[in-house]
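Inputs:
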Amino acid sequence: MSDVVVSAKHVRKSFADHEVIRGVDFDIHPGTCFGILGPNGAGKTTLMRMLLGLSPVSEGEYSVFGQPVSDAAIHSRIGVVPQLDNLDPDFTVRLNLKVYAGYFGIAARDADSRIDELLEFAALARRCNDQVATLSGGMRRRLMVARALINNPDLIVLDEPSTGLDPQARHLIWQRLRSLKKQGKTLILTTHYMEEAAELCDELIILDRGMILTRGSPRNLISEHVESEVVAIRGLSNELDAVELCDGLDIRIDHVGDTWFCYCTDARPLVARCVERSELTFIHRPASLEDVFLKLTGRDMREEA
Amino acid sequence: MNAFKLIPWHVLAVWRRNLLVWKKLAGASMLGNFGDPFLYLLGLGYGLGFYIGEMNGIPYMAFLASGILCSSAMNTATFESLYSAFTRMNQQGTWESMLATPVRIQEIIAGEQMWAATKSLISGVAIFIVAGLLGGIQQWDTALFALPVIFLTGLAFAGPALAICAISPSYDFFLYYFTLAVTPMFLFCGVFYPIDTLPAFAQMVAQVLPLTHAVALIRPLLTEMPLTLPWLHIAVLVLYAVAGFTLAAHLASRRLLR
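Outputs:
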């Protein structure tokens, strides 16, 4: 097998009157977790739907395991965790998995032992005979992950896997995804949680308006695009006030609503000045992927968002 | 998309999923399939039958029972392919979850169509039994051949209904189909009276509708009426089933795979 699991070359997608993916290139290597980030409407979901054969590619080459994405045979090697819950509400936890195994042609006998393993993996073994409707949001999402693994896929595609989950449930999902990576699975995920991307992804692309703005590992993207430290300040009266506060320091200032974000490589002098002014509230933290994201895609609230 | 590129076990897996859901709710579902036609047979067969006596030379109960058997196959398959299939397509995301597997859209449509026909058969068997008990079946030696015809009738109605389902924006849309297609067939395709009592133009219209041909096959199988042109009637039902399937597969593909 080649060393590329997914390959996109000049991929484009148009709907009737507008182009939503405008020439995207990337390769995904086996055993890595690849993140697709971007604001709402950036084209993340379209890129995923094309990958899964749910949306025809308008132009370019998009392939999985060396086969074009339109080839249904590749689905036997892919697991999908969709964003919206589409578990079967009429079935128990176990029957959900069993029926799904049927779509892959997995014989009932083989399915049973596989299902036991997966229920253990998803921490749902004790709930196996419960109706899906009685599960919490986190359990349902774990069941969807388990369902995506029923065919022992090499590639797992996750669309916003932790959206709407509480922190405990989210960390449990992340831990499970990391263990899948350890087993050598390739993961693709879309998310707009930067923390999630930083936790899981080896490589990511930031997408906006159908184009890739940047790509790299979370750590490299941070060092490449933003200064290492951030002081977020509230209580400044106006722009001039902010500029005066930073006077003489090497600082890049960004303004959103009532907060001024001051980026710099050494924040100590600025922090000292902030402490002196008791009317200011401020947070000093290392720069994160979120700062990269906001710098590249803009801080403005968008109408289409 | 080639609608006829079908892998049988994929179709079967879709069909089986629906069977498993049905098994859980079989009681309530059977009551529905069974109750309505039972009341028609009792109410009209005995009540009206008392005044009518015979129709086309056979007791009205026997005339009506064979008609109701056909109309219930139509109703059952249509309901399943509109409301239930729409729920699976639009509300529950069931079809989309299947599309993430090797199962393809045309196989989903085929599985749904087979399942709707299976439900027609289930309700048909129930009515068959009731009709037998009420004296609606005259010819037991040919009567059992009606069962595969009921299944075929289910396929013929499920196909077009799935096509409607695939273009429907909401459940409300189905009312048009019932008012414009299903109810007229129920009343004018020979369920309650022979179509040759209709004006010539109405007869011509009735002749191109599938329910007319289902009745023309099933009534002679259950009663002493002679069976004429069986292959023509079978061909019309097969045509509706295949054309409906092809159309539904393309429309569903257009809706879901954009």
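Remarks. Chain A has two domains: 6-217, 227-286. Chain A touches chain B through 29 residues (CB under 8 Å).
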